[in-house]
Amino acid sequence: MYLVAVAQGGHKPCVQAFGAGQFDVHDSKESKARSSFFNWSFLCLAGGSAAASLVLNYIQDNLNWGLGFGIPCISMATALVVFLMGTRTYRYDAKGHDKNPFFRIGKVFANAAWNWRTTNAVRLGEMEAQGTLRPKSSQQYKFLYKALLAPVGSHGEGGACRVSDIEDAKAVLSVLPIWISGLAYAITCALQSNFFTEQGITMDRTIWPGFQIPPATLQLFVGFSLILLIPIYDRFFERAITGRPSGITMLQRIGIGMFVSIICMIVAAMVETKRLETAMESGLVDKPKETIPMSFWWLVPQYLLVGIAGVFATVGLQEFFYDQAPNELKSAGLSLFLSIVGVGNLLSSFLISVLEKTTGGEGKDGWFSDNLNRAHLDYFYWLLAGLSTMGFVLYLYVAKSYVYK
């Protein structure tokens, strides 16, 4: 499991940054194609996940676990060969002789902190007069411009930072509020593979007489919605409706996805309330292993909404963190996006642990009782809808004042 984590940590941020780097942003056609790249990249990930849910789950449960793991092993080996075959055709960024970008950006913060007592108004005025700085640009994170001065006590200008270094530091600072506001969305994304599946276990999953769909396979509906909607968004919505080559802005796209995730939690809460009422009416509250006479199709809307939210928010966040990161830190920018997902999963687990202790114990059933018919996942979903709304309001505030790099 740790090897999987290490592999994904190296592969996921770099493969998208490297793929997007194959497009020239100064060329209008290639710039449009780069935006599509994130859509189709996410589509391929969704397609692979859907194939795994559809085929590998069945093979591992009914045939052989070795074969179930062997197939993805062979597919990864094939992917590696295909990747290496393109080595001579890829575009590579020319490596400069500049200092390490992390060192340069770190030096900006260090110099600004060291010179916090000094004033830089005169220096800023001179640079704006010379055209080195844009007046609007100098208004954001003005304290960082103290790094233009050599640290107090040093001799000469050798210790001063350059304007380009400060702009990179500002770019890093600017995306952090977006990162924070995206955590509520990441928490809701963590639910599709656990509680949604647990709900499905208790419901009637009959497709036709004698055949029931496995509970984990319900996640296929997320993949189906992604596979269906991404091409529609990329070819129709993004350009045909907006009338602009790049479609809606990245921040608008993320905001739409966050709003859809709120709707998803509201729908999930209402469906769970209906499931609990059906269990009570059928006298199955204390019979958790019995199938509740309620079709699994009731769960499909919330799975589809998860997919719709992903088309907008997840892909939008990927493109945003890549596009707004300093030029030499594109893969680090995508790592920031992945860290939202990771921290969101940790926060989800932490929230569940706290609620389990506070709502249960002493012989009473909490929100996450082992008997799902006595639990209250509906309360949890309403809580997440509230948290998502708070995160969405914070996001709107931050996005409104955000200045694109």
UniProtKB/TrEMBL annotation:
SUPFAM superfamilies the UniProt entry points to: MFS general substrate transporter
The entry's keywords: Membrane, Transmembrane, Transmembrane helix
Keyword Membrane set for record: yes
Transmembrane portions of the chain: 37-59, 65-85, 172-193, 213-233, 254-271, 303-322, 334-355, 379-398
Topology of the protein relative to the lipid bilayer: Multi-pass membrane protein
Localization per record: Membrane
GO cellular component: membrane
Gene Ontology molecular functions: transmembrane transporter activity
Record InterPro entries: MFS_trans_sf (IPR036259), POT_fam (IPR000109)
Listed Pfam families: PTR2
Annotated family: Belongs to the major facilitator superfamily. Proton-dependent oligopeptide transporter (POT/PTR) (TC 2.A.17) family. Belongs to the major facilitator superfamily. Phosphate:H(+) symporter (TC 2.A.1.9) family.
Protein name, entry field: Uncharacterized protein
Species this protein is from: Rhododendron griersonianum
